[in-house]
Amino acid sequence: MNTFTVLVRREMRVALSLKAQPLWFRVLKWVALIGFVARYHAAPWFWTFMIGCFVMCLGLHFFYRWKTLAWTRSWGGWNDVRAADGLR
User: Fold this and answer.
1) What does the pLDDT read at residue 88?
2) Cβ atoms of residues 80 and 19 within 8 Å
3) Which among 3, 2, 15 is positioned nearest to 83, based on CA atoms?
4) Could you tell me the pTM of the whole model?
5) Of residues 18 and 86, which shows the higher confidence score?
6) CA separation for the pair 12, 84 (Å, rounded)
7) Contact by Cβ (8 Å): 87, 6
8) Which domain holds residue 61?
9) DSSP secondary structure string, 46-85?
10) How many CB atoms lie within 10 A of CB 34?
11) CA-CA-CA-CA torsion for 62, 66, 69, 70, nearest 10 degrees?
12) Domain count within the chain
């Protein structure tokens, strides 16, 4: 496997780990996001807000990934380091 494939597989295992977020929380999060988009998609500030949220979330993702050494160390709130163990 090439490095990109290993990286994508590791990211997907961490993202889909049920120890990181329970299923009910994921469903609730998507319902809230879809409800927000349905309610405010015509507002003039909507795309500015969505792009700002995307940039902040991407920054937080990379910060957390840096602090956990690419998901291989526990750092605050997430203890499923085995999700990334076999894919180093």
Assistant:
1) 45
2) yes
3) 15
4) 0.65
5) 18
6) 9
7) yes
8) 3-85
9) HHHHHHHHHHHHHHHHHHHHHHTTTTTS--SS---THHHH
10) 10
11) 10
12) 1
